[in-house]
Amino acid sequence: MLYTTLMLERNVHNPILSARTDLRWCSKKVYNCAVYKEGHTYRMLFRAIGDDWISRLGLAESTDGVTFTIISSPTMSPEQVWETHGCEDPRMVKLNGTYYVAYTAFDGVTARAVLTSSPDLYKWGERRLLFPNWKQSQHGPLRTDWSKAAALYPTKIGDMYYLLFGDEHIWAATSSNLVDWSPAPQPVLSAREDHFDAAYVEMGPPPILTPRGWLVLYHGIDSLNNYRTYALGAALFASNNPSRLLWRCDSPILTPTESYETVGMIDIIEGGFDRLKSLELSDLQKLEAERKLPRAVFCCGALLENDVVRLYYSGGDTVICTATIDLESILSA
Question: Residue 127 falls within a domain, yes or no?
Answer without folding.
Answer: yes
